[in-house]
Amino acid sequence: MDLPIILAGPILRRVDAHRVTVWIATSQPFDMDAKLFKMHDEAEQLEIQCMTEFICLGERLYVYLLTLLPLHKDFPVDTLLGYNLYFKGKSTRMDLGSFGLLNPDNDQSIVYGDLKYPTFYIQKELDARFLYGSCRKLHGKRDDALAAGDLTLQETYLDLAKRPNALFLLGDQIYADDVAAPLFPILTSLNKLLMGHDEQLVKLDPRLKEKPFQRSLNQINGRQYIMEQFCQFTSSHAHNHLMKFGEYAAMYLLSWGPALWEAIQEQGGLPTFEEQIENEKFYFVFPNSKQFQKEHAAEWIKVRNQYNEDSENLRQALTTLPGIRRLLANIPTYMIFDDHDVTDDWNLSIDWKEKVGHSLLGRHVVTNAITAYWAFQGWGNCPDSFGQIFKSHMKNYFSEFTLESSSYEQWMKCIENFKSWYFVAPTEPKTLFLDTRTQREFDIHPLPVKIGGIIQENIRSPQLVSRQCWKEVSRVLMDSGWKSGSDLTIASPAPLYGIGLIESFLHSYVYPLRSIGFPIHQTLDFEAWKYNGKGFSEFLAKVFEWNPSTCFIVSGDVHYASSVQSTVQSKNGQTANIIQFTSSPMHNMSFFGLWGSMLKLTIWFNSMKRKKRNIIRYCDNDFRIQIEESAHACPTDHIWKETLRYLATDTGSIITTENNLGLLSISKDSIQNRLLSYRDSEKQELTFEL
């Protein structure tokens, strides 16, 4: 396969009046440069200095971060700006136009309308308009809602009063543990092509040399046992789990745009199920697939049908990738991880963390995943967070890329010990992004759970951010220039406020069933802030301490969208106004089957009585969150008390489980939260009534 020169990007990353950051991945090394323009009738070039950093991740994989700095005064704010990138090789000099990306008549163009360049603006006085969402699985069902963000920019690209000025991706930008069967051979092939060599995982776990693992490791549906038994992972969808760095990298490249897919299409596109069987690409528990087909006809049909369904979902996703690439090139984008960027249940409990940490192979896979997150997501969020020592460890490891060198252990420790994945995005109002995965605090004390007449002890849900981490987060927020008394946006992958009727459903069924061994938490996540009263109260304590005028929280994770408004009072009489906006999933509708049907039925019965109803609840001294009723009057020694209300959409619902992308607009006079969806190449909208 001939790789394209531009593998993914450009993606516009951190942007403020002092600098503009652009990310791009290529298959060849270049001396990269950039120009910045003030967009009038004729583009006016601004005087800048371009500082370029890059890391060679593989033989044919180079990731660049270009930082554009003003030479004299700050960049103009609330003004349409454009940029172009330049690629200087040994004998060539190209720009984005050389690849057809600046031609509005080209299907792969990354410009809007008749503009000459991809554009953006640095928001200062104009109203905030944030696109936000999470949970984007490449082979998800139905249309990718992120494409609706592209259509929104297409409608507003010249009208800065209406054009969104930032995109927040709030976790699960890829699904490392839920990889479509038709995609798996492509990823393993791209791994070798991009990296130029293969990771010798057998050196970490010699069992991979034995039958059937030396065969199943690189076959479709062949990794579930390896991930469970060798890596100590708990995902029930790990049949094609990503393991090698090049596989994670390839998944990002295929998710960010169409460039690599064009090369795949030239090679014939997605192979059919029959072709994969003929080429022995599938792993079967029973080695003789013909015998399996004969003796287990129903299972065979199920495997074939799932393969064909995934293939169709992938083909549908490809139609939206050019627009998504255009969106990412034209809006400052900030990204934070959640579990599926690494693996389902990542750091779910202290037991999970310790078991995986004691597995050489499991530890390696997690480090690969977080490193890929850094290279493809984290680096552009706040480049100053990653010092020269950090980047040197990355470069040293990838230059040697051997599991038996000192650079390997330095790389592992560098990733494992890094504490500063959280950051503040330079939006107005400022947006604080929380790391709710690597800085958790675990409680060893058991939680009693009643199942019928039996009482079981279960592991408590963790505090999603430790007390020590909150101190560091607070310091970073204050260092960003944010002032107490002004508005604040907090990006938390897991919602602070979910929908109570869903949480009640989870608490009544998921927790008890999980305590006796049912893997139901794989289907419905059980990791909201509410499930640890101490962690929830710590979050509120920080809000009281910071004292924002209004605290806006944007979240994802839960595979539904909702809006919740709350007024919270501390025991000392402080008041906090909080509005939680949740948008999920962008492309992973998951409420199907038995549990989805039960949940939707629960919602249908309960949503009407909860609309426009104030719910009063409190936290007692044992950190139990209670709804205040006649039987549960709020005690005088409560920690906090709140009045919350679920907000309904203009269709009367308080929740949607369809693919969606949030659009939050904040002005001095009003707040508006809309949900964008993409169907049949058109954008649709729902509006929450505040």
Protein topology:
Layout: E1 6-16, E2 19-26, E3 31-39, E4 43-45, E5 48-58, E6 61-70, E7 81-88, E8 93-95, E9 119-120, E10 128-133, H1 146-156, E11 166-169, H2 184-195, H3 213-216, H4 224-230, H5 245-256, H6 259-266, H7 273-278, H8 289-295, H9 297-318, H10 321-329, E12 333-335, H11 350-357, H12 360-376, H13 388-400, H14 406-417, E13 423-425, E14 431-433, E15 447-451, E16 454-458, H15 467-479, E17 488-491, H16 500-515, H17 533-546, E18 551-555, E19 562-570, E20 575-582, H18 593-610, E21 615-619, E22 625-627, E23 640-646, E24 661-666, E25 671-679, E26 682-688
Parallel strand pairs: 10-11, 11-12, 14-17, 17-18, 18-20
Antiparallel strand pairs: 1-2, 2-6, 3-4, 3-7, 5-6, 7-8, 7-9, 10-24, 13-14, 15-16, 19-20, 19-23, 21-22, 21-23, 24-25, 25-26
Helix pairs in contact: 1-10, 2-5, 5-12, 8-9, 13-14
Relative strand content: 15-25%
For the report, how would you describe the main beta sheet? 9 strands, mixed
Mean pLDDT: 91
Give the termini separation: 53 Å
> What sort of overall outline do the alpha carbons produce when their principal axes are compared?
globular
In what order do the strands lie side by side in the largest sheet?
A: 13-14-17-18-20-19-23-21-22
Secondary-structure class: alpha+beta
| Count of alpha/pi helices | 18
Model regions low in confidence, pLDDT < 50 over at least 5 residues: 514-525
Q: What's the β-strand tally?
A: 26
Q: Tell me the radius of gyration.
A: 25 Å
Q: Which bin fits the share of residues in helices?
A: 25-40%
Organism: Paenisporosarcina quisquiliarum
Protein name: PhoD-like phosphatase
